Amino acid sequence: MTDWDEETALEVNGEPLSLRDVLRSAKWRGQLGFIQATADGALIRQAAVQRGIEVSDDELQQAADDFRVARGLHEVEALEGWLAAHHLGFEEWESLLEDEVIARKLRDALTGGRAEQYFAENRLSFDAATISRLVVSDEDVAKELRAQITEEGADFYALARQHSIETATKPAGGYVGPVKRQELEAAAESAVFGAPAGKIVGPVKTDQGFDLIKVEALHPAAFNESTRAAVESLLFDEWLNEQRGRAKISVPLLAESED
Fold first, then answer.
1. Domain span holding position 158
2. Is residue 79 part of a domain?
3. Which of 12, 39, 191, 233 has the smallest number of Cβ neighbours within 10 A?
4. How many folded domains does the chain comprise?
5. What is the pLDDT of residues 74-116, one digit of tens each?
6. CB distance 134 to 146 below 8 Å
7. In CATH, what number is assigned to the domain containing residue 180?
8. Whole-angstrom Cα distance, residue 202 to residue 157?
9. Cα 33–34–37 angle (5° rounding)?
10. Where are the strands (E) in the chain, listed by range?
């Protein structure tokens, strides 16, 4: 049995903090995602072994090259600096790269040939629209602002900067950017995707208040490489979620830290 109070995890100004202190803080803040991620990695590795999936030297080298290029780590010293900053040894880094390659190969094996069919069956869910929002708390105010825009030619973006209560988009005149259907509440989704580009829709009642939404552009779903990658990731996540439900997972680390 580990004595969690004697396992020093870090020091702050000379004060030793035990592994129990670290875990207690992580539990309090809901920051135990690393445990789920580690369990997921084990499920992926186990499934890969069952399917005979392995990583060749060439595949590992390609993964290392891609990693370095993506982060601008062209020189050996730059890579060593990155590893030091992330508290990783070279062998640990290679092992983690191997895990990523295995996960990608397993995903390809599980989703091969299914992406196009899934897209065809769920095409609407991949539609997107670029929108701007003007949100107020009172429906009558929303109707008045809509009248100013549609009947008097008032500038939507200027009114959004002046009146919107949606703090994240207010400084940009209400501009939200591209959104998928599933990212919108039902009423807003129906209004946005039932309107032509350039149309002002609303007021629409949402959780935040009453929305006036400008449909900047509509982006009907198309099956391309980006969509394929999104579908494959979605299918892989569904598979992984099923494995979590079937797996027997216990966390002695947390159980012992509570003693």
1. 128-219
2. no
3. 12
4. 1
5. 999 999 999 999 999 999 999 999 999 999 999 999 998 899 9
6. no
7. 3.10.50.40
8. 15
9. 90
10. 8-12, 15-18, 128-136, 175-180, 200-205, 210-219
